[in-house]
Amino acid sequence: MKVKNLFAIFGLILTLLLAACGGRPGDAIATAVPDNAPDTETEAEPTATRPSQSGVTILADGSVVAVKPVLAVSFTASGRLLELAVEPGDVVAVGDLIATLDDEALRDNVTNAEFQVAQSELNLTQTQAELDRLLTWEPDETAVALAEANLAAAQAQLENAQASDAVAGNSVTQANVSVAQAERQLADAQEAYNTAFDPGREWELGDPFRKQLLENEREAATRNLQFAEENLRVARANYSLAAAGINNDSALSAQASVINAQQALENAQKPPTAEQIESAQLNVQQAELSLQQSQLSLAQAQDAIADAELLAPAAGTVLSVEVAEGAMVGAGSPIITLLDTTQLEFHTNNLSERDLARIAPGQAVQVTLKAYPNDVIEGTVVRIGTQATGTVGDAAVFPVIISISSEELDIRPGMTGRAEIAGE
What does pTM read for this prediction? Predict the structure, then answer.
């Protein structure tokens, strides 16, 4: 009799609790179950969990959701897809190779950039060496002695050229005199020839004595005229040869060599000017800037090579492959879609607002999935949704987000089940 009274009292308490929660016989969205209630028949799904320590257990249905959204993975460069290393269903880790682009042209760019860097380094070395030479300048005795010897040789060449020109000038003078003499001799011979062949003397041919004299005179005048003409031609030829012996260019060239040798000697003895040092410093700065630009171009070319390999940005499972090998892909075009299944949550979908006051972040939760009805998955309340997702009857329902983890079970997003929250 006393046991029956106890059960009656317990039933009254249970009725009062249900009334306090606004529960009605038809409302089974979330049910508070006393820990010491007698065993009764329950639904086959989900399997009953161990009693909570707080005295109240809140039940709610829901589904498994991935913490991170689906991720579309793409190249940052454009090109032809050379190789695809994954297929749907593959599990990848951070940094795993997803796909590669044809990088032949990109490697040529790297080679060219490396050559430009080498050229820039050589130019910087040369300009820096010149600046150091100017800053640490001291007279080079060997260079000075060589410059002096070159100057002496140039001066000797100039003297020889001038002497040759002087000799040639004397020869021209003599030849010119010979030409003048030959011209006078030709004039005299021409005059004697004209006299001998004067038509006014034809009468002399009638006198045998005068005829002989005239013929002898004319024969001698003819020979003398021919001799004078030949002598003039020879004199003129000798003049041309003498004139050709004068080479003013050699003297001018020798003079230029002397000037250059004098300048070289001055340079060997004269320290660098401030303007020369400033110019050398500017050359070094420009060479350094050129090297930096070449190194930047090389780094960009190398980055482009790296961009030709698509690596997994996060761990997860490949949901789909969007392109085929050999296709042209653009920067930002999705290659695969990836879902991180290592971080999962259980989101309730029918927890009544009447139970929110007994739920707080950090509470222990036991989740049973339909896929694994005999396995209990431990979880923890992370947060309560800030906005209702609908109503059941006259009560709004709010999602409760629960973190779950199980290495033994193959839990996948979208699986459904029931959560038992140890209410406060």
Answer: 0.46
